[in-house]
Design a protein that fits this description.
By secondary structure, this protein is of the alpha+beta class. Helices cover 19% and strands 26% of the residues.
Length: 209
Amino acid sequence: MDFNAKNFVYVTVPFGDFMQSVSEGSKMYLRALSEDQPAEQPANLNIDFPQLADDFQLPEELSLVTGNAFSSVLRISGPVNMWLHYDVMANVYCQVIGSKRLILFPPSDVTHLSFAPGSSSSSVDVFSELESSSISLEQTHPHEAVLNPGDILFLPPLWLHTATPLTNLGVAVNIFFRNLESGYSSGRDVYGNRDLAGYEKGRQDKSVE
């Protein structure tokens, strides 16, 4: 999937039909939203899928994440790549079913990976370009992680990342959490990815000059 090119469409289908299609190898991707107020509230696994809530528990070692959780997102995917992007809020990615390969880059690499000014997404196909050596390893610093069922990966704020499935069916839960005491977006932020309030204010002040 390429967020900038929008080479995908949003559709609404019954959950059973979606799971059937994915199990048959269809290139589909579910990113859960709030059931009651998808445009107003962040996703919450306990509220949106109460029948699954007791089946997913973070270990006690991640009590910081649990105590500062912003959203918990159910993700179910077929053989679909997630585009290269970064999130403003820290999060942990918990693989439940299937396996996935992720490539991460530190924030300092953003100028070498075709991010447009003000954009948090890039159209660079990292996996093919790393294979063909189109991405300079002198200018970028890729880190690779392979997640299997039960694995949890910490994604620091602003770290660029992309993912590709290693199995036809993948199920994961992505938990965004507040790693700062304050300073997050001054407005509504359903996805936990709006710029920090200080940055937004600074950009507005600069545009006024």
